[in-house]
């Protein structure tokens, strides 16, 4: 697209001073981002709840500012800062990005949207295409989440355009957990509800400021109980559900309730 005359008119002559400045800007930006991530992560470890997440949420914002500042510093050292050159470079870059890096560019744009709309932040528990875990970091192109079995999943921001992202706690401490119980239909439902509520109230991980709800739904093959409660810390959700399930089953057995022994193949009906 450009011949040698055009390139000489666009590009700045690279002097030793310019090269040293460019290298210093790149190294300084990388070092600043590294120290920023380490420093804010360290600071957030001494905070709790939303204050910790708000501190972590500033990491991608400040990183974006540093990268933009580095770009605006380096480009005038390489390109003659004229309007015509800006239009030419922008057009060529847009064409290259459109054909070669469409998905990457889309992920970057979605990442910028994420910084302003904040549909999720570090510390949130989200589900994306069957993967459920805690967001540990948010980058410009993707975010990293860790699942319950300690698997790291990297999700490109591109998913923001065409995929549903479920957020279990949305920047707060309130994360609802559900323990399911299936009992044979012939029993005292009011007593079963009281037993399950007591099981939740006696859990050491219970967040007592949030309500405890026991939903009952009759199935042709069983009575389905859903014990809904909130743990103190979202990260304790799996231990909390385990505690409710184990102690709930034991309490119901001691009260002579009988559990349904089999489920139909297509038992995945949606319950409220």
Your description of this structure?
By secondary structure, this protein is of the alpha+beta class. The protein contains eight helices and eight strands. The strands form two sheets. A five-stranded antiparallel beta sheet has the order 4-3-2-1-5. Strands 6-8-7 form a three-stranded antiparallel beta sheet. Strand 1 and strand 2 form a beta hairpin. Helix 2 (16-44) runs antiparallel to helix 3 (50-78) and helix 7 (189-201) packs across helix 8 (237-254). The radius of gyration is 27 Å and the shape is elongated. It starts with a helix and ends in an 18-residue tail after the last helix.
SSE arrangement:
Elements: H1 4-10, H2 16-44, H3 50-78, H4 83-100, H5 102-117, E1 125-128, E2 131-138, E3 142-147, E4 152-156, H6 159-162, E5 165-167, E6 177-183, H7 189-201, E7 213-218, E8 223-229, H8 237-254
Antiparallel strand pairs: 1-2, 1-5, 2-3, 3-4, 6-8, 7-8
Helix pairs in contact: 2-3, 7-8
Instruction: List the uncertain runs.
Output: none
Question: Biggest β-sheet, characterized?
Answer: 5 strands, antiparallel
Topology, number of strands: 8
- Strand numbers in spatial order across the main sheet: 4-3-2-1-5
Question: How much of the sequence is in beta strands?
Answer: 15-25%
Portion of residues within helices: 40-55%
Query: What letter string, H or E per element, gives the SSE order?
Result: HHHHHEEEEHEEHEEH
Number of helices: 8
Q: Gyration radius, to the nearest Å?
A: 27 Å
Average pLDDT, rounded to a whole number, is 81
Which short descriptors sum up this protein?
8 helices, five-stranded antiparallel sheet, three-stranded antiparallel sheet, 272 residues, alpha+beta, 49% helix
């Amino acid at each position: 697209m450009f011949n040698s005359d055009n390139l000489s008119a666009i590009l700045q002559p690279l002097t030793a001073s310019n090269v040293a400045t460019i290298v210093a800007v790149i190294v300084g930006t990388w070092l600043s981002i590294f120290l920023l991530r380490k420093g804010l992560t360290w600071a957030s470890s001494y905070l709790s709840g939303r204050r910790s997440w708000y501190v972590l949420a500033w990491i991608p914002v400040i990183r974006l500012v540093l990268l933009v500042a580095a770009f605006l510093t380096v480009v005038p050292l390489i390109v003659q800062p004229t309007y015509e050159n800006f239009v030419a470079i922008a057009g060529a870059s847009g064409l290259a990005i459109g054909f070669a890096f469409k998905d990457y560019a889309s992920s970057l744009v979605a990442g910028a949207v994420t910084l302003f709309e904040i549909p999720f932040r570090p510390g949130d528990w989200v589900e994306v295409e069957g993967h459920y875990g805690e967001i540990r970091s948010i980058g410009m192109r993707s975010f990293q989440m860790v699942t319950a079995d300690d698997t790291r999943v990297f999700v490109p921001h591109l998913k923001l355009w065409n995929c549903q992202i479920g957020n279990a706690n949305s920047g707060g401490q309130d994360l609802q957990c559900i323990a399911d119980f299936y009992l044979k239909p012939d029993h005292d439902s009011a007593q079963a509800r009281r037993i399950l509520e007591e099981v939740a109230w006696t859990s050491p991980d219970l967040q007592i400021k949030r309500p405890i709800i026991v939903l009952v739904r009759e199935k042709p093959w069983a009575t389905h109980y859903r014990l809904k409660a909130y743990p103190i810390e979202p990260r304790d959700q799996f231990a909390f559900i385990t505690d409710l399930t184990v102690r709930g089953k034991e309490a119901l057995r001691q009260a002579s309730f009988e559990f349904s022994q089999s489920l139909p193949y297509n038992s995945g009906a949606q319950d409220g």
